[in-house]
Amino acid sequence: MPVYSEKVMEHFMNPRNVGELENPDGVGEEGNPVCGDMMTFYIKVKDDHLEDVKFKTFGCGAAIAVSSMVSEMAKGKTLEEAMKITPRSVANELEGLPKNKFHCSNLGAQALHKAIQDYLSKKAKGGGKE
Amino acid sequence: MRKVYLDNASATPLHPEVWQAMTPFLGETYGNPSSLHNWGDAAREAVEVARAQVAQLIGADAEEIIFTGSGTESNNFAIKGLTLVKQNKGKHVVVSAIEHFSVLHSARTLEKWGFELSLVPVDKHGLVDPEDVRKSLRKDTILVSVMHANGEAGTIEPIQEIARITRENNVVFHTDAVATAGTIPVDVKRLGVDSLSLAGNQFYGPKGIGALWVRKGVRIMPLLDGGVQEGGRRAGTENVPAIVGLGKAAELATTNVAAQVEHLTPLRDRLLTELPGKIDHVVVTGHPQNRLPGHASFCVEFIEGESMLMLLNSQGVAVSSGSACTSRALKASHVLIAMGISHELAQGSLLFSLGIDNTAKDIDYVLEVLPPIVDRLRQMSPLYAKFIKESKGGK
What we know:
The structure holds two protein chains of two kinds.
Chain A: H1 6-13, E1 26-31, E2 38-46, E3 49-58, H2 61-74, H3 79-83, H4 87-93, H5 108-126
Helix pairs in contact in A: 1-2
Chain B: E1 4-5, H1 16-22, H2 38-57, E2 65-68, H3 71-84, E3 92-96, H4 101-112, E4 116-120, H5 130-136, E5 141-145, H6 159-168, E6 172-176, H7 188-191, E7 195-199, E8 210-214, H8 240-278, E9 282-284, E10 295-300, H9 305-314, E11 317-318, H10 334-338, H11 343-346, E12 349-353, H12 360-380, H13 382-393
Parallel strand pairs in B: 1-11, 3-4, 3-5, 5-6, 6-7
Antiparallel strand pairs in B: 2-8, 7-8, 9-10, 10-12
Helix pairs in contact in B: 1-8, 2-8, 3-4, 5-6, 8-12, 9-12
């Protein structure tokens, strides 16, 4: 097996928040299948907080664990707090990632940020949700 | 939990008789084969018995066998050693695009040393067309190397036809038989090659031991200088226990290879036919028929190999993959790419390599545990979600 921490293995075996959201407030996609990993994040926003976060991921064990961890870290946070989640903080929460996996598989934070930006730009255009 | 090892292309278990044959040489029989006393004699005799056993496996003469430290060393030795002695004749080398890295990277090193390299392509089944080899030959071609079978694709190459072409053109022909020696019948005279590599860990022998056969009369430059071990062609004190183990494994394979083929082929065919029946959107990679008896390989669409490997491992099943994520270099297998498989599809690569210990129950078990694993990962996959949406939208 790849040298993964217990935390990575635990999230890989039991990923949290897998799935899609119906009528999400924001969607963010990062990576592509050619280079290995691809993640899509779906968010639901209420009162400036991430009420719900779901994801779908194509990729290795690390990519799946990263997505799961990001979803868990982001849920319930304010948008501002969620934007502060970084690949480094995700890796730290996962008790480390193998060096060669740090860049290619650690795309969860970026995908989440894209989903938040998607929400913000829709809001700016549409003058708020609903 | 059931344990099912289906990664024999990486390493085979050590045969108990091989282990038994080796143990005296890890203990009481510790002499150096070069020494001129009883201790040395015992070790030297054991090495020569092993040399004859390996020679017999491939229909060669014992004195044509050079023991090396691995299949990789044998291939390095062949590619560099057979060309460095022929530089006055030419500097052009031809190898197939799906060679093992020990051949491919050796050929790249030759390029850095001023040689010229031509790569022969393969078709979608991983098969080399002998006519492509003929077309790539030049007046200054001094070596052709095409592997007997590819460990990733499983495809067995038309070595005899290629050898006919190299003989007509008076070019030395090396074949990497690491995946075939001890696995299917291999006879150097029938194949018509000039040099051939094999390795112990592919047919129930120890790791860290290989051999290179070089036809009598074909010159090769040693890569390791030092003493006169191996007829002066490979210096260094012999790894006597491993050599003895390789010899024993070769002897067993000589006797058992036909029965092994008979045992493995139906198990392989069950995987090749039943797996695509149980899982949608699975592509068989490699040649459908002309392939190694214990070798079944696939690409599973919409999901990635490493995550399949990890979930299979959690169910006690060991397999391998040519996906980018499973390679240390994070690059998709050059073999799959050479066969025209897209980088995206190559990510879903799965390789089952069966061994003599596997049974029909093992295959039943894999066919039972793999479909839910694929399903679970597809439920997580944005690519699968897109595919489902698009196929619904198309109605």
